[in-house]
Specification:
This protein has one domain: MetI-like (MetI-like fold, Orthogonal Bundle), CATH 1.10.3720.10. It has a two-stranded antiparallel sheet. It is mainly α and 294 residues long. 73% of the residues lie in helices and 1% in strands. It has 14 helices and 2 strands.
């Protein structure tokens, strides 16, 4: 009976397993294989062995390192801004104050929009001629601060980061709100009976019990920030002068726009190794922190 049940489960799961292996697992070794060739991506064209030349070019590529720097900045911003604000909003919407359901809906609204829609929306908001930001600055008498936000290399990357934070803070808010709903109310009642203030309850009771949610959010922020693509592709396409370039966008350009599949695969492998390494380091740090707590 047990074997029969497992067999049926395997049969019904087989289509999903095949799709997962084909689209998520197989590309990893294939990308590593392609990274050692010069190839334009068309199977009718020859694959020329290149040895380590793609990797040498990668480490000499100043545009790639600019993209890696932008990804690193996005990781820092995600961890230091998106997660803390998401945590505070999660605590806020978990309270029983009036209007919290409406506030939760409004804050979660960006997650209901596609990255393309958000990119186009904010592209109009940042428009130097008829955009909302410059219009508001002119209206309140600060016209001297109007700017071509996405056209200036000094402000473009930060303008994009603002949109990314606006898009993803609600995601972390929902994670923390869900984690808070699983904390027994008796713990908060006991803290109040013992005379703990709101801040003491937050730091001594709430925050320690959200460790798993914080760890999950950190890992998601790391992986997501290193693989970010869609919104930057829509808003700036990596410009101006590569100031908003990120690794995933550069990989796409090299592989599908310039038909350098070998070099694009090299960038993909680098991203995979970096994401995996940072995730393992993060998990190890959290485990070590738990050991010290014990």
């Amino acid at each position: 009976m047990w074997k029969h049940r497992n067999f049926k489960t395997l049969i019904f799961s087989l289509p999903a397993i095949v799709v997962y292996l084909f689209y998520f697992i197989l590309p990893i070794p294939m990308s590593l294989f392609y990274s050692f060739f010069k190839w334009n991506g068309f199977f009718s064209s020859p694959m020329i062995p290149a040895g380590l030349s793609n990797w040498v070019s990668l480490f000499k590529d100043t545009i790639f390192w600019k993209a890696a720097e932008n990804n690193f900045l996005l990781v820092v911003i995600s961890i230091l801004i998106q997660i803390p604000i998401g945590l505070l909003l999660g605590v806020l919407v978990s309270t029983k104050l009036k209007g919290m359901k409406l506030i939760k809906l409004l804050y979660f609204l960006p997650m209901m929009l596609s990255a393309v829609g958000i990119g186009l929306l904010w592209e109009y908001i940042y428009d130097p001629n008829f955009g909302l930001i410059n219009a508001v600055l002119n209206f309140i008498g600060l016209g001297n601060l109007t700017h071509g936000w996405l056209g200036d290399p000094k402000t473009a990357i930060w303008s994009v980061f603002v949109v990314i934070c606006w898009e993803y803070i609600p995601f972390y808010m929902i994670i923390f709100a869900a984690a808070l709903s699983g904390i027994p109310k008796e713990l908060f009642e006991a803290a109040r009976i013992d005379g703990a203030t709101h801040s003491q309850t937050f730091f001594k009771v709430t925050l320690p019990l959200l460790t798993n949610a914080i760890r999950t959010s950190t890992i998601l922020a790391l992986i997501g920030s290193l693989q970010y693509f869609a919104l930057i592709y829509v808003m700036t396409d990596g410009g101006p002068t590569h100031s908003t370039e990120v690794m995933a966008l550069l990989m796409y350009k090299q592989a599908f726009r310039f038909f350098k599949t070998g070099y694009g695969s090299t960038i993909a492998v680098f991203m995979f190794v970096l994401s995996l390494s940072l995730t393992l380091v993060t998990l190890k740090l959290y485990r070590r922190g738990r050991e010290y707590e014990v």
